[in-house]
Amino acid sequence: MTIRTYNMRVTLFFFILLGIIMTSCKDKYNVKLDSLIPNLLLEYKALSVGVGIINKGEIEFVKVYGEHQKGIKAPQNTLFNIASITKPVVATTVLKLVEQGNWDLDEPLYKFYVDPDVKEDSLARMITTRHCLSHTTGFKNWRWDEKNGKLQFNFKPGEKFQYSGEGMEYLRRAVESKFGIGLEKIVDSLVFKPLKMKDATMGWINDSDTTRFAKWYNSKGILHQMPHKTEKINAADDMILTVKDLALFGQAIMNQTILKKSIYDEMVKPHSAINKKRNQGLGWVVYNELPNDEMVLNHDGGDPGVVTTLILLPKSENGIIVFVNSDNGAGITNTITKEIMTHGIDIIEGLHWDNKIPQEIAIEDELLSKYTGTYLTNREFSITFDKSGNTLVTESDVFPKLKLYPKSNNEFFALPYEIYFKFIEEENNMKFQLLTSENIVELEGLKQ
To answer: Are strands 285-287 and 296-303 parallel, antiparallel or unpaired?
Structure first.
């Protein structure tokens, strides 16, 4: 055997082995998710789920399950509205402008744009891109959250964290004013096209692509009666793309092919404190307390009939994308993250809990039965609690389906978000309270 023949055989063997390994990884995800997701769709009355998995920097799995529109099997290139995951994509675009020397993170935006609602406020001269991307503008999420429906400062820009879609929109208008073109065209040229995100778009899709669009369904699996068509470009919401598109974006973030290292480092460092565990980078939630010094970059999205999550672990270059076109999507994204991601429950706790996730306890079936039934809430809608093993499950026309785990004889916790349900017997009747991590009562109801 010649040296050349030997080398050819070794090379061939290497590629065969690599193919076996890659196929094995994909088969592993197929087997696990093919058995898991159909049951989740049934349990949560959801229509479709899209999953993307990045393993050691490679996109190893992309698959869409179920029906993106009732009665129609979802194609693998289903188009999903990703809600607020729009924000890190737009943030990356703006940081690309910074990298090119065409934009400054700390230049006051009043030079390009001032919102009419705050033009008389001197604080408007302070807002910078850094404030917008780190959610420290001082604006509420949306101006309609204010009593007068107008944009206003709740505090001095840069003072503290307060999540704000308005901040992203403020930045969009400033960028468009300087460059004289729509933000969607800048995103397309700096992110979508270079990363070959061929189906990604800001704004509505072509008529021919509407058959691929994942329509939005409520907690009962009924189509939301609201327009699905995106009428306006929004820097904070409503980007449309496929699972593969976002996997390409996540891959490029982790291997730093979209941004050079100095800009990437600026993006992921803490710029504002969300709470005692989590920080806000530029466009991303940053969590640094996983084992092995692993950092988490995250953004979630949620609108009526839309629940999305993007979780990246840059050190190991692992990541997951989950899209669900249902109000009940949180329970699905939570379960998939726990089952697929290493340290999945630690990730959920780090991203969504101020405290430790409680230990589930076993309680008497008779006690669970006392809590079941339909409750009329103080917001004039009903929630029904049903038994499911050692847990309670919520059912409602407007409230998402949640599985509630007992932490004491009358207190339950939900996943993935930190909320608690407390049952109290008063005057021969039962009521419940929904409490936040700060023990604030957000909702209560009386058993009917």
So the answer is: antiparallel
3-class DSSP state of 91: helix
- 111, 124 in Cβ contact below 8 A? no
Look up the pTM and report it. 0.91
Q: Would you state the pLDDT for residue 30? A: 87
What distance in Å separates the CA atoms of residue 92 and residue 171, rounded to the nearest whole number?
13
Q: How many helices (H) and strands (E) are present in the chain, helices listed first?
A: 10, 19
Token couple for 396:
């409602």
Residue 16 above 70 pLDDT? no
Residue 28: its pLDDT value, please? 82
What mean pLDDT value characterizes the chain? 93
Residue 52 maps to a domain: no
Residues for the chain: how many in total? 448
Compute the distance between CA of residue 329 and CA of residue 306 in angstroms, rounded to an integer.
7
% of the chain at pLDDT higher than 90: 89
Residue 139's pLDDT band, with cuts at 50, 70 and 90, is very high
Q: Report yes or no: 423 and 434 within 8 Å, Cβ to Cβ.
A: no
Q: Are strands 411-414 and 403-406 parallel, antiparallel or unpaired?
A: antiparallel
CA dist 231 and 229 (Å) reads 6
**Long-range Cβ contacts of 254-259 (<8 Å, 24+ apart):** 254/54, 254/57, 254/312, 254/313, 254/314, 254/317, 254/319, 255/57, 255/317, 258/92, 258/96, 258/191, 258/194, 258/195, 259/92, 259/95, 259/96, 259/99
Q: Which residues of 343-373 are buried (b: 16+ CB within 10 A; e: fewer)?
A: bbebbbbbbbbeeebbeeeebeeeebeebee
With a pLDDT cut of 70, the percent of the chain lying above it is 94
CATH of residue 293 = 3.40.710.10
* Domain CATH for 416: 2.40.128
pLDDT at 119 over 50: yes
Domain count, the chain: 2
- Asked whether residue 149 falls in the same domain as residue 272, the answer is yes
384: CB partners within 8 A, 6+ apart: 373, 374, 375, 394, 395, 396
Q: Where are the alpha helices (DSSP H) in 255-382?
A: 261-268, 329-340, 344-352, 365-371
Q: Is the pLDDT assigned to residue 432 strictly greater than 70?
A: yes
How far is CA 433 from each of CA 22, 144, 148, 283, 404, rounded to the nearest angstrom?
A: 49, 27, 30, 34, 13
- Single out the residue of 186, 179, 178 nearest to residue 110, CA to CA: 178
For residue 442, give its domain range.
365-447
